Amino acid sequence: MALSSDLSKSTKLERYNSYLRRVNNTKLLAASSKLLFRATLLVALLLVFFFTLNYPITGNDAQNNASIHTTSRFFSSGFYGSGATWEKQVRQSSTPRRPNGFSILVTGAAGFVGTHCSIALKKRGDGVLGLDNFNRYYDPSLKRARQKLLSRQQIFIVEADLNDNPMLMKLFDIVPFTHVLHLAAQAGVRYAMQNPQSYIQSNIAGFVNLLEVTKAADPQPAIVWASSSSVYGLNKDNPFSETDRTDQPASLYAATKKAGEEIAHTYNHIYGLSLTGLRFFTVYGPWGRPDMAYFFFTKDILQGKPISIYKTHDGEEVQRDFTYIDDIVKGCVGALDTAEKSTGSGGKKRGPAQLRVYNLGNTSPVPVARLVSILEGLLNVKAKKHLITMPRNGDVPYTHANVTLARKDFAYKPTTDLATGLRKFVKWYVGYYGVQPSVKKETTSNAAK
Ligand SMILES: O=C(O)[C@H]1O[C@H](OP(=O)(O)OP(=O)(O)OC[C@H]2O[C@@H](n3ccc(=O)[nH]c3=O)[C@H](O)[C@@H]2O)[C@H](O)[C@@H](O)[C@@H]1O
């Protein structure tokens, strides 16, 4: 009995112990699967976070742009914008190689005008650091090709958005820039109806962010920036002079550029920033912008697609003061060379500073139909032309620059006529896109004349 009761006691004890082990095991299992679940959740969340930032999957341009901005901001400040190698590239690129050379931050350096200006400045011995967000307004592969061109000249581009305040502050901490050539913008007159917010984001918010950072910098740099001939809007005076009225913009694009000019006045007035706005007149040339008429006309003519040539609502020819890129580069360099120093430092004004606005045009308006016939000759292809009344999309019928002021202050003198400039453009175009040898032959023989 005693044995059986002992046995039953020990069996009970064993059962109890095994029960406890099972409970413990289950608890352990539950705890570890909880831990595993949490870890998996964390990893999944991190993956979603990174993928959302890297690959915006929306088809909407405005949202796309916003995602692109977020991506570059995140990566630029958090990853690319740190590290000894990155900082060394920033320093090397912005260090001048000539006595009293400038140290210039070029925003929009992978853009059309930005690329040409950066190369010209670097070649004469200035230090040039680029900034660009490589957005998708037009084919980013063209921007990457321009970046390669710049990197061959030892020009480094920081990949970040103008609105990336920590990144801009960091750059100004590392480099005592003497100048900023501010060319980054949401360009294009007609696209403003499709994606208005992108113009506010870049041309207003981005510009203000840049001015906020530069006003606080010590030393404050002098700033030369891209305004636009479109600010003249519905101006009737001819040719357009800087003193003409600019309070009737015909597009949101023009309105944001005009707003930029007013914002420039404010920062000059309060903080003593030296500011020069350049009103570019329809700039064209090699490495140009695919969204501009001369560029997509070339593409469409070569592909046998029809093109629309606008006429005004009064049936008149639409005309532009097309300006060749090399002339614009000379104008930008002239404006930089004559820009006086900002007078403030660390956010405080110490005296009055320079505030300027200049037209940079070619001074000879050409009808769009004439541009097309020059292209037809160069490409050796007849265009399928449709003459249509200008849609109400922000376009203006006519532009014509008076450049007296730029000539007086920095000897600006455009020297390239439209036929010569377009020949250079077409030569570049056929080489870059590798099109028709017949076009090449024609262009080369023309070029030799
Ligand atoms: O200089 C300026 O202020 C502006 O010049 C260009 O704007 P835009 O002159 O309109 O240049 P394009 O878009 O290349 O148009 C050139 C001409 O072709 C005409 N056009 C355009 C498109 C089209 O399908 N057909 C057509 O006849 C336009 O009305 C315009 O007269 C740039 O796109 C702006 O960024 C710049 O600020």
UniProtKB/TrEMBL annotation:
Transmembrane segments: 35-57
Protein localization: Golgi apparatus, Golgi stack membrane
GO MF, one example: UDP-glucuronate 4-epimerase activity
This enzyme's EC code(s): 5.1.3.6
Keyword Amino-acid biosynthesis attached: no
GO annotation, biological process: defense response to fungus; defense response to Gram-negative bacterium; galacturonate biosynthetic process
Family from the record: Belongs to the NAD(P)-dependent epimerase/dehydratase family.
Subunit structure: Homodimer.
Entry protein name: UDP-glucuronate 4-epimerase
